[in-house]
Design brief:
about 375 residues; Protein Transport Mog1p, Chain A; three-stranded antiparallel β-sheet; elongated
Amino acid sequence: MKKLLSAALALCMTLCLCAPAFAAQNSMDNFRRTAAYNNNFADVSASHWAAPSVKTCYEYGLMTGSGGGKFTPGGTLTVAQALVMADRVHEIYATGGSTLQNGSPWYQPYVDYAIANGIIRAGDFTNYNAAISRADMAYIFANALPVSALPAINAVLSLPDVTAFTPHADEIFLLYNAGVLTGNDSFGTFEPNDTISRAEAAAIISRVAIPSERRSVTLLEEFPYNNRSIVLALPAGTIEIPDNTGSSYISDNAMAIIANTTDSAFWGISITDIFTSDSIEGILFNGFLDQNILLTNIHTDIVYFGSIVAFRTTGTATSSYSIENFVCYNYIYGNTRITIMLTSSDNALLTNMADNLQVSGSTVSPKLS
């Protein structure tokens, strides 16, 4: 009897070890690597900006390429291709696998599935081979998962080119706040009516399916100063505090200070005519030391806002309550010497603020990045 029980126990253990892992219904845990990517596409080099996203899409079964060993990263995404991607995300989330196959026409099963599962509505599209707009792409991708699977990690309340009247504005903002969409610049510009490439779509759909790929972003807004003589790029919700010689702009994670000194002796000369890098650094060091702020790792170089010459000083500002990196600009415009100080503990945010700064009507910003 003991031998029989031992044999039965061994058999049960074997069966348990060999049993397939059943996917949970409606779970983000259902997204798993199902294929190995070995540079499968001849037209996606390892240095291509979208190579990591293409790899993710292939390994997780979200995209399989355009045929003939190619991915066609620069190809324009069509409505049908967007539906295929969204259907796969929806089906994997719901069941753990994707079983849809091409039909006649090839995209019909995907259209039928999308309508049946609320990804699109019947009549939303009439030409499935047409290029899809970025707004329509957002509509389809947002409906591939329930809202609960796209929790907000950002607080994007406005975008430069998306209003309440923009088609699918709700879906666009849902994806921005979920960290799926980040926009084409530091201000979050979306270009809802433009087309989208397959490479861009790969980056977006990978963030839909893989939460760890989603991005926290701080989008910037323009804050004009003194009739747009200076335009700052600062986080939304920044508060301006004006004073007699300039203004301070303060947000939760950044600060900008503008100070002006007007003197007729400045008229028609460059900042380099009266200052050197060393003297600028000395003025900054001593001025902030008087405020119990120590500047370290200071470096100054000459940069140009169009035809305007400026000293740019970078470093670290340490006070009793914070340690923040800073970028400071000094230049002369008309008869006024202007100092602009940008600080943040977030280096990426500080770089974006500096890269998007405009002074005295110039549209050219010396890049910090």
